[in-house]
Amino acid sequence: MNYLTPAQASAQLLSLIVFGAIARWYVVPWLKTHARADALIAVLWVHVFRYVALQVFSAQSSGFPISDGGAMEIVIGDVAGAVLAFATISLLRQRMHLAIPLAWLLVAETAYDTVSNIHGGVSEHLIGAASGVTWFVLVFFVPMVVVSTVLLAWQLYSRRREPLDVAAGRGMRSGELPALRAS
After folding, report:
1. What's the mean pLDDT when you consider all of the chain?
2. Do 83 and 182 contact (CB within 8 A), yes or no?
3. Total domains, the chain
4. CB neighbours (10 Å) of residue 116?
5. Half-sphere exposure of 44 (CA within 13 A, CB side)
6. Of 56, 64, 20, nearest in space to 154 by CA
7. How many Cβ atoms from other residues are within 10 Å of residue 87's Cβ?
8. Which among 114, 126, 149, 183 counts the fewest CB atoms within 10 Å?
């Protein structure tokens, strides 16, 4: 029996559960205490590293049985996501409102890319074929991207009426320190 397929699926599910718990217990409370732009930036940084998908070419040359078209589809989607994320972060750092539609575009692009990659993996019989770095990317980084995309969509929607530069509940501008008061 080939245990690679259930091992990969189990590891991906466990990573989703663990990243979901980390997000719920630690990331969500932290995001609520920061300015909208800063919260979005924090979530977006995960996506900047999606260029790790370029390793699929190395995996392919080492025997990972993905077609050239499948590899190119993965690379184009993930590198586009990385570029979108970095551009969005740059705009958010300047508190430019163009960042918000770009962030929504990244959410849509990531959802499409994820579904497309799952479909491609199934149709090319790649589930359970990964090993080494490819296995690590699939069971660790991909679930992190999925959870961060959910966080990004949640932040974009739930804080849509907030200005980019005011910290939630503190009335302070981003980067400002609270005033010290004598007691």
Report:
1. 90
2. no
3. 1
4. 14
5. 29
6. 20
7. 18
8. 183
How do residues 44-102 score in pLDDT, each as one tens digit? 999 999 999 999 999 999 999 999 999 999 999 999 999 999 999 999 999 999 999 99
Q: Report yes or no on 167 lying in a domain.
A: no
Q: Is residue 97 domain-resident?
A: yes
Q: How far is CA 58 from the centre of its chain?
A: 22
Residue 141 lies in domain: 4-158
CA–CA distances in Å: residue 16 to residues 9, 41, 146, 154: 11, 21, 8, 17
CA angle centred on 151, ends 50 and 75, rounded to 5°: 15
User: Please, are residues 11 and 144 in contact by the beta-carbon 8 Å criterion?
Assistant: no
How far apart CA 150 and CA 106 sit, in angstroms, is 11
Q: What pLDDT, on the 0 to 100 scale, is given for residue 180?
A: 44
- Could you tell me the two tokens for 123? 């149709």
Angle (CA) 109 47 54, round 5°: 85
Find the range with the poorest average confidence among 9-18, 66-75, 89-98, 173-182: 173-182
Domain presence at residue 180: no
What's the pTM? Answer: 0.86
DSSP string across 60-71:
HHTT----HHHH
Residue 164 inside a domain? The answer is: no
